[in-house]
Amino acid sequence: MIPPAWIDRGDVKRADTLEALAALCGIDPVGLRATIVRFNPNAAVGIDPDFGRGQNVHNRHRGDPGHKPNGCLAPIERPPFWAAAIYPGDVGTRGGILCDEHARALDPSGEPVPGLYAAGNAAATVMGGLYLGAGCGIGNAAVFGYVAGLHIGSV
Predict the structure, then answer these.
(1) Model's pTM, two decimal places?
(2) Start-end ranges of CATH 3.90.700.10 in the chain?
(3) Which CATH number fits domain 4-84: 3.30.390.10, 3.90.700.10, 3.40.50.920, 3.40.50.2300?
């Protein structure tokens, strides 16, 4: 259940038609309808060509295991329709800058960028883009921060 205060504050929008939802959100209703017309057939067969939702273990763990064929997707068909603004945050352990063994940031050709180091959520993880659980980025941050400090102190 959505807390009524979220709706009252406008954090979550609710409408009985897609066009009304688009108006509440200040987005193009034709574009929203076109997106859903494209999305629904893919969702019905369990694929998401745009974002790959449900294609890895982490996604499936967060999805509905009782919904088939993909617990992370369903066609958008029945009102009411809901929307909420999503903003990027400052925590993420699924990507970042590639580094060498000294925590030096690497340029696209694989060469260290002079004076640039990365650790924690700014650096690519040793998990190879997987998310193993809460806190898994802390070890990477501590080790690479330490390694960077040692290297900076030696140059």
Answers:
(1) 0.58
(2) 4-84
(3) 3.90.700.10
